[in-house]
Amino acid sequence: MSRPLALIVDDEPDLCELLALTLNRMQIDAETCGDVTCAKQKLTATRFDLCLTDMRLPDGDGLELVAWMQAGGITTPVAVITAHGNVETAVRALKLGAFDFISKPLDLTALRKLIDSALKLKRDADEPTGEARLLGSSPAIVELLGMIDKVSRSRAPVHITGESGTGKELVARMIHEGGAQAGGPFIPVNCGAIPSELMESEFFGHRKGSFTGAVGDHKGLFQTAEGGTLFMDEIADLPLAMQVKLLRVIQEKSVRPVGAAEEIPVDVRVLSATHKDLRALVAAGQFREDLFYRIDVIELKVPPLRERADDIEPLTDHMLARLARDLSVALPALTADARRKLAGYSFPGNVRELENILERAVALSGDAPISSDDIGLQRIADVPGAARTVASDKATDGAADSATGGALGNRLEDVERHEIIAALEQTRYNKTAAARQLGLTLRALRYRMQKLGID
Question: What domains are defined for the chain?
Fold first, then answer.
């Protein structure tokens, strides 16, 4: 089996020699170039497995070479060598399509990790790429799938936006499973669910005795995600003090556990998501601008379900098949009226709401086909403007229709919470009996209890 081949583009002989020696020790052959013109000629004539290019070259710069490779469809992973602390250049390189960047003076350990990650992208095409799937064939989804495939081949930070329930974590998993970090762990974390006083310890870890209650060493989320992906959901909920520390970790690619004297290098790809408008939060001084530009190198928007109506039917069939497997029942049939009712609904809760509706419908219909009467939409759909207000109340504050939608949602949840608690009390907290009394499956009851915070 032939050894991988790398191209080194740099006009400093000493650096070229250092890189070539490092590659050779990793069983990788290397060719060198001193300028952009030579690099273009070699990349056109030879198929390389990796390209390492300096920023400053006699007849141009590394960014020009990255842009030329992307425009010409050359898929060789390219990493840019930048000056220490030059974050702006690193971000520009990633936006243009660079696989990753590394700063001078070169850290050989970090360099080896980068090279290993780049070569993983050359795995065989028939190797499994994971189980995460985004279903649909609408133009919006086809475009999103193309972007996911493209950004998976990079190490650039990706920020995923979209309304609640659209599947932002699923998109993050697909990026992870389609990229060089697929063999490592995928660690999702909801930033809004961690108490502010524990955030630094949770993300970066701590040493024994560093604070009261620290009875042993603790690995933080970054170290747990080593070699893989850390997905930071609802990143807008991070307090400003934590945003400063996160920015340093992303820039320096190292963490310092609480109570530790030295930083620990980490090889982690950071993906983030939120349903809020980060640009508006930056303008309001509630989110750091420098962190925003660091995590938002590439932005992916997950479309709401109302903008991909053609996907409702295949999503419905897929979810019903999964429910049948989970409940060990025959595949539920859906009447034509029920399908028309779903097709005409705006789904303010998006894909998550569709799943919830179908789960409830399966429980209500029993062995009979699911009819339109089993599709319980009227509580939201019959309220004028509800689809718009439920979505908008998460993105804006102070709008009148937003407040109305939020108040309605709260009242509906209060009623549902009261009915579930009453059923639990009547059955002496026997969840199976309570689910039967409410006309729900046990799985559906557990889901509703978790969502409504009923312990």
Answer: 5-120 (3.40.50.2300), 139-301 (3.40.50.300), 308-452 (1.10.8.60)
